[in-house]
Known about the structure:
Blueprint: H1 2-14, H2 26-29, E1 40-45, E2 51-57, E3 64-70, E4 77-78, H3 81-86, E5 90-94, E6 100-105, E7 108-113, E8 119-121, E9 129-134, E10 140-145, E11 148-153, E12 159-161, E13 164-166, H4 178-186, H5 188-210, E14 218-220, E15 225-232, E16 238-245, E17 255-258, E18 267-270, E19 283-289, E20 294-298, H6 312-324, H7 328-333, E21 342-344, E22 352-354, E23 361-367, E24 372-379, E25 384-392, E26 404-406, E27 413-417, E28 424-428, E29 435-436, E30 444-449, E31 455-464, E32 467-474, E33 481-482, E34 489-494, E35 500-507, E36 510-518, E37 525-526, H8 533-536, E38 544-549, E39 556-562, E40 575-579, H9 596-607, E41 611-615, H10 625-629, H11 638-654, E42 661-666, H12 668-679, E43 686-690, H13 701-708, H14 715-721, E44 734-739, H15 747-759, E45 765-770, H16 780-798
Parallel strand pairs: 13-14, 40-41, 40-42, 42-43, 43-44, 44-45
Antiparallel strand pairs: 1-2, 2-3, 3-4, 5-6, 6-7, 7-8, 9-10, 10-11, 11-12, 15-16, 16-19, 17-18, 19-20, 21-23, 22-23, 23-24, 24-25, 26-27, 27-28, 28-29, 30-31, 31-32, 32-33, 34-35, 35-36, 36-37, 38-39, 39-41
Amino acid sequence: MRVLATALLTVLAAAPALAAPPPLDMETIMADPDWIGPAVEDIYWSVDGGQVYYSQKRDGNPVRDLWRVPARGGAPERLDPAAVAQADGGKAVFDREHRRAAFIRHGDVFLRDLASGATVQVTRSSAKESDPRFSADGRLLTFRADKDWFTYAVTGGPVARAAELEEKDDPKAKKPDALADEQQSLFTTLRGLRADEAAMSADADVLAAADPNRAPKAFWLGKNTSVADTSLSPDGRWLLVVTQAKDADTGKVADLTHYVTDSGYAEPEATRPYVGRNDPAPQSLRLLDLKTHASYDLDTGKLPGIGEDPLADLRAKAIASLRKEGKADRADALAAPKTRPVIVNGEYSPGIVWSDDGQRVAVQLRAIDNKDRWIATVDFERHALVSQHRLTDKAWINWDGNDFGWLRDGRTLWYLSEESGYAHLYVRAPGGKATALTAGRFEVDHPVLSPDGTRFYVRSNKVAPYSYDIYSVPVQGGELARVTSYQGLDDFALSPDGRQLAVLHSSPYIPSQLATVGVDGASPRDLTDTRKPAFKAREWVAPTIVGVPSTHGAGTVWAKFYGPADAAAAASRPAVIFVHGAGYLQNVHLSYPAYFREQMFHNLLVQRGYVVLDMDYRASKGYGRDWRTAIYRQMGHPELDDLLDGKAWLVREHGVDPKRVGIYGGSYGGFMTLMALLRTPGEFAAGAALRPVTDWTSYNHEYTSNILNDPQIDPEAYKASSPIQYADALSDPLLIEHGLIDDNVLASDSIRLYQRFIELHKKNFWMSLYPLERHGFVHADSWYDEYRRIDELFREKLEPAATR
């Protein structure tokens, strides 16, 4: 063995050194990202806290495999189907005494005795169960399947439906009928039959009430009522039902067309209505007492400020304009309601949260006009909502950062709020004064309460806007203490005993990886490195985070700069400004970017002699409320000011030629590319707009109405914010690229702008359409073609002829 080992070492020593990777090329960076290595996703702890589970994309297809690794370190293990069938499910819940745990595995509910380790499968159905929870005494387990709730006695069942909800009228309810009343008054036999029916029904009710083994009586919600959501108290006593009108008119739906299909025929696909064509359906709350079989409507009309009209001035102006044009019917349709309609705000956060003991419940409601958010509790004795917190914003309530819940005492609420100008954590006893647990010019998110209820763990960018880590703070208030020092903290999960954190962390060229660390920050331990050798072998351009001074009163605009190692070498180079998408998204950070392909493209540009600037313009996430809402009623204006400041910074600090600066981006970044070229012609040598919004009146309601209000009420905001309104100013080379089956920003947006350019006799504009791509491209061939065209545009328009 020793001789073989010596011989092997001799051979390795004589072998030539591994060749350095070849220069970057478009084929490599736009290839399927499997060559990079998959990110670690969806982490959760085993019930005993000894292992961490996670998902990882399989090479060659989108299937996610389940993996497991010891929390103390060791080799990660990919679970085969038999092992997956025995694995712990995610987000296990525990009873108060920590004697039992419940979790969901492959859509079914499982119950484990922690002392013996015995596991019982509670359900075996095709339904996808979720949200298991124990009652305060630990005797009852509740869970849901879609909108239906079930209970299970942990000593042995059975599984029972908590309530029967019928979207119909009660067939036994007496309807007013003069003829039927006359018949009853005339014929004693008919009266006797009705009395017999009533006696039989009453006897059945008495027997059912005394027999817990019977199925529950139905609640008849009404034939015009649809159930939007439900939430059961942990003790199984109360059910909150969110309702809305059945078959609400959603307005005309836009279609797209699939041109490349299995059938060989063009096939249509319905997508969504346009903004303002029909508001979301208003919702109502109904409280059901499952013990007494009583139903109570919860009136939202007493919420503070619910009768105010924050759009009164804009509304009056729009109504007056319509009346002047002789459109009285349309003017009448804009009249403000006496009480603003609301919805339960459960899309990006839990809409309804029960205390652990089931004695209290909090509901988060949002006005459909997007200007108010309320957290209200329910008074079970008076069957009424009691407002505990109102957050109001003259622009719009942030759809993100609305987490809320209860402390372990079951009396004190906690919630996130932007009321200070930044997203921070607050606690408040019902009817009491709110206390801020965090404060400052930074943001916190993802609050997690420790199992003993003594402190919160949050993710925060306290050190710098672009640097994220985990911090902890006592529930009674105190120091916000830093726990980790990764700077690129993506997500975390607290262990069942509350002593460790499983974290996902990343850096600009390392996708999310799994580590564990003590809750005091001690003993950090990396558990995975999923990068492939070819990707690890490359030396990438480290982005430098820079602060660009605003000349428009915005302070500092943070950005990532990609350039040569020798800063002086940037002088006289061409430059490209990249504009991230989504508007409310942060791309200047120290984590692995969502725009990892674009980042590699920026490396390719640097290799070819460019410098690149990637800015978190106003509207970006992570910088507070004022930064977020700067675009209210004027999308594309403050952001463009910031991008022009970025261009000026490149010229001033790096000697970039101002005549050789290009711009590109996708989605909101495509929209901003259009605004840059059409509102400031001559500033940019060329632009590439990918899947851009060209006319906000054709985008969806949920996003657009937050920022621009409804187009019927605020047409001026849409006119000021839509690139198609500036089409006559096109003079710079423009490339538009769009997926034909994009069901987010419809391809018709780009096609309509293209037609407008045709009618205006414009030159130097091109469009490339991708028949098999939606909003986010998924096929490597499309990515390659898309960026080849962008690269060729910049080469032709930004580089001197001698260097092409």
